[in-house]
Amino acid sequence: MNYKALNRALLSLVALCLSACSSIPVEQVESRISAWKGQHIDELFKYWGLPSRQQHVGDRHYAEWINQSSEPGNAAVSIGTGTRSRHTGIGIGLTLFDLGGKDDECSRLVTYDSNSIVNQITWQGTNDYCYEVTPSLEQIQQNAQRIQH
After folding, report:
1. Contact yes or no for 52/65 (Cβ under 8 A)
2. 122 vs 69, 93, 131, CA distance in Å?
3. Spatial separation of the C-alpha atoms in residues 124 and 105, rounded to whole Å
4. Are 84 and 3 in contact (CB under 8 A)?
5. Tens digit of each residue's pLDDT (9 = 90 or more) over 22-62
6. Are 104 and 126 in contact (CB under 8 A)?
């Protein structure tokens, strides 16, 4: 059995799994969210759903979307290899009760004017989750163009 090839294959598999867990960069989240600036607030209502709260102060209007997700922990599998002298070992670990779980939150505060045009969006929260809960305006526009043609 070619243990070196097996080690390389396992290391590649682990690297692939780790890269799948990487976080979406802030710039990418910012780009998706800020694309909605200049849109009519009704478009956000249509695609983001109803806001968690709204407020009117002077000539400024505010709408805030607060999304939360809580996922329980689950089972985890780990694979490891090791070599010593001429011997190679492979180990497999299984965790059945990973109670860590994760909590995600995304808060997006939108400011729009008396003409209902969005002029500012601020956000905070988990990058991946904020990216996930904010629809891609570009994708929506592309789909609309396909339907029209």
Report:
1. yes
2. 20, 43, 13
3. 8
4. no
5. 599 999 999 999 999 999 999 999 999 999 999 999 889 99
6. yes
Tokens of 93: 């670990």
Q: What are the tens digits of pLDDT across the range 97-140? A: 545 556 899 999 999 999 999 999 999 999 999 999 999 999 99
Total structural domains in the chain? Answer: 1
- What is the pTM assigned to this prediction? 0.65
With bands split at pLDDT 50, 70 and 90, how would you rate the model's confidence at 86? low
Structural domain including 62 reads: 3-148
Residues 131 and 29 sit within 8 Å (Cβ to Cβ): yes
Run of H or E including 118: strand 118-125
Measured CA to CA, the distance from residue 108 to residue 62 in angstroms comes to 10
**121 touches 110 (CB < 8 A):** yes
Using CA atoms, how far apart are residues 149 and 135, in angstroms rounded to an integer?
A: 22
